[in-house]
Structures
1.
Amino acid sequence: MKIADFVAQVKSGQKTARAFAEEALAKAREVGEYHALLALTEARALQRADEIDARVRNGEDPGKLAGVPFVVKDNYLAFGAPTTAASKILENFDAPLQATVVEKLEREGAICIGKSNLDAFAHGGSTENSAYGVTHNAHDTTKVAGGSSGGSAVITALDVVPFALGSDTGGSIRQPASFNGVFGMKPTYGMSSRYGVVAMASSTDVMGCFAKSAEDIALVESVIAGRDPKDMTTLPDYFVPTSDVKPGLKIGLIKETMTADVDDEVRAATNAYVETLRSLGHTVEEVNMPSVKYALAIYYIVVPAELSSNLARYDGIRYGRRAEGVTSLAELYGRSRAEGFVTENKRRIMIGSYVLSSGYFDAYYLQAQKARTVLINEFNELFKTYDYLLTPTAPTPAFGIGENTEDPVKMYLADVMTVPASLAGLPAISAPAGTSASGLPIGVQIIGPARSDAGVIALAGQVGAHHG
Amino acid sequence: MSTITTDDVRHLAQLSNLQISDDEVENLRGDLENILGYIELLGELDTTGVAPTYQVTGLENVWRDDEVQTSSVTRERLLSLAPEQADNSVKVPKVL
């Protein structure tokens, strides 16, 4: 069911917000074995639903998302249950405020019913790094959900809620969207506020959402987008949703993402998507983007550097879990952090410390930031000729649970197609493109120039209505 | 290719305020060596004369009025988040 149908029924009194919230909560319990959610926010959800219903009865405007249930990734500060970031160090963290994005959704009447699982602190591409257990893929429980926003992708795919929030630093919305067969949008850097979301890498973190249709993505983004005085990196308001697609677009298929290393079925699904684009009157040509080869290396220098700084605040002093039986301050820091972080957090923090060390700074961090410029210049050059760029979202469909956990580099390679748009701050959507012979979803990624978010979503919607 | 020793791992752990066990040291040593081995790929890219990118929006000097902003969060609420408190303060082990 589309978001607009929820809202219409609530506003007309045909069905109450409370009934929708109860239904979503019941569905969430039914699909408990996927372990997509870390907590339900039941009491608060029902109370808010009653408030929405009262507004409807009193003839007040209940908002453009009146009574629409949603799920929030558990790295957003949100009331109703602890905000854990799927880590032990924030196990009982009772957020004193809510993320701007959550506040905006609530102001329009949307109702948060639960908090979804993720890789701890959003470090990962499979949701296997959660301190609270792995989330299972919506289409095959032996496969990973993708990550890091795996719980939100699965809960959307299972139709528990019509949309869910995620965060995307290098592919954490797009990759799980492709693994679970839903739409997942990473907006332009700065389109929506980062305030009140547990920071990972400040120069690429963006807030976005999952939904079953491009139309619903556009509606949710229209609520969460906009400048926030509490996040000085937000852009002046520009997002206006549209379903109009300019006829005869020029689209570049990035050749370096269609090499023999990429799964055959992923390439076939991408080629089928290209055919649908052509049948709609658009032109698709292969384009070269040589720096794609370096994007993942740039990402795994810049992002650990930033996150090692951002995670320095988790020290067991002012909030979060504190190690017991410590005798010195150094031991308090060292043990609280060692006990509170998962292994992948430690790897990334230590890589960050390494690349920022004085002897290595030029060779790693500075070189990566220069290479980032090279990558951005290549995007700019391509967008002089092409309206949008196309890639598969991930090199494979969902892999098996446990398949890549022993080899961090192999795990990182699942992000290889999504990190370029993150490093350049560009809007990108993952759209369902097909299924493998074994029934696993495959997604493609449409990347647009900065601030072309509405166009990216509209194009995904146009193809979605005609594809497969 | 970078070689990472167990002493390097201990040094990085100390820089990162992580008290890790001996078992972890050995595992992390291998992981870090593999990750650094991968990112060294960047060394082959010629970036002579290229300026580094630190931000992508192009925004600069985002001003606001220099006014005190009120917060919905009280001092008591923030203090209540600390693992140990006493006398309206956050309690920590002796430093000196």
2.
Amino acid sequence: MDCYDSIGAMIKWYIKCRNKTIKETAASMNIKETTFSAQLINNTVTADTLLRLAAYLDIDLEWMMIVLGYHGPVSPVEREMIPRMRDEFRAKERKRVNKVLDILIMENPASTSDTRRELLKAYHDNVFYLLDVLIPEEYGIYMFTERDKQKYFVDIPEPVRSRTSPIMRRKRINRLYEGYKALDIVIEERKDLL
Amino acid sequence: MRILFCNITYLKYYDGRVAGEYKPKSGGRWVQENEDAHEKWNFLNMDGCCYGFVQGNSDQMHIEKLDKVYSHQEEADNITVIWCASHPIRGTVIVGWYEHATVYRQLQDMITTPITGLERCYWFKTKAEDAYLLPEDERTFEIGRASKTGAGTGFGQQNYWFAESKYAREKIIPAVMEFIENNRSKRINVLTERFMQPELLKPLTKEENRRLKEIDDDNFMELLPFAYRIYAFDQSADNAYNIACCLHNLFQHRMAIPWYEKTIELDPNDKQVKETLVYMYQQCEEYDKSKVLALRLLEDSADESDEYRDELYSVIADDCCLGGDPDEGIKWLDKILKESNDKELIEYTKNTKKLWLTLRDSLIK
């Protein structure tokens, strides 16, 4: 199941990403495990549980709310610009992800694609989360769906410096990088820093 | 024999992969990705052709140096381009070559759309079948540097060398031609036949099904033969789409188009694939088809947003202008100016209109 499908799935995904279990999360919030599990399965998470979870798992609730409700029908012609996570949350998330990324770079020094694949595995194939956390704040993330497959693109704001074509769309989308390609660039940049 | 030597960055594959072997000169990788080492794509098979770039000091390639007949021409055909690069130990060596290439006087821009193509430019073009990239072990033929071995014996200050000297014509070129003859069979670049549907299509065995699940979903080269075989025994829209997707991601846009069309034929309600196809047609310079499809999408766009309508207007304007009818293109620009609420787009459209009016006037003259 995709983690954007429901609030229960998204919270489960967050718990996994924080390397915690449902049991210990429930215990830390003083909620019965069965009650908490039922809330997740039936998507009936109460406001009280959600607020406790936000504190315990360090979740940007506003971002989560928008992401859960924002994915309408989108397409190549009308790409959906996805709202970015709040900066202070991104900074925290980025620290966590970079730790994992650094280890993966060390383990796969010769191959950026292998590092990217392992990174995606570590974050349960959530391309959007990784893009949102890792790419610079001022960049846009676009999404569209094709035959139920989500495709992500990163739009960087720098203008086309060299040769420009008279084609109109150049102005509207400066430089689009496909999601995996964008992750590869982030990994290459991280490699340069290490 | 018309021959040109080019000196480029040393890379293994020249198909866009640079991981671990190349660092941009300055700035962040996001912008540098397209600015630096443009030659990293010189052996990428794009729609059956390879497009070559060499960093030059001049804004034009002096093709008249190949032959005086090209003095007043914009391109020269049937040229052999020898790609050389500086190996850390062996010196400047031949890494590959193009045969029957076209060399352009002016740097050419490649077509891109928001979802297809690569933003790059090129001086040379040849069929993928006429491009030869050597494996690293075979990159042994050294080409001199004029600063070390004397004038006329190798590259000067420019990254390209027309090898016009007597020494080059009598000594270097014959040796290079012999090297080429002996090494044709060793090339490692991808030929178009790798993208084509296999003649014998068998159902997947259990072992192959297991293997298929293990292949990364961005390993399109490995997925493609499986996709063809799966479709042959289950002709669904999803399976046709998978073939289209593989070909699209492998830069075989022309080959992808019939599979996108097949997807729509099998699932006529798939609006998103129709939208992809609008851009695919543009990428392949099939502007009439792109326009027809965009107009159909526009007819059905009553419930869509203003942005959706604006984008289709822009696409149709592009199709008209690039298809050779700037007047019709300008009419669509006027529609944007009249109906759009997007200030940035309006500003840009005004500038585009000025540009296209100039273009139209120069065509009339």
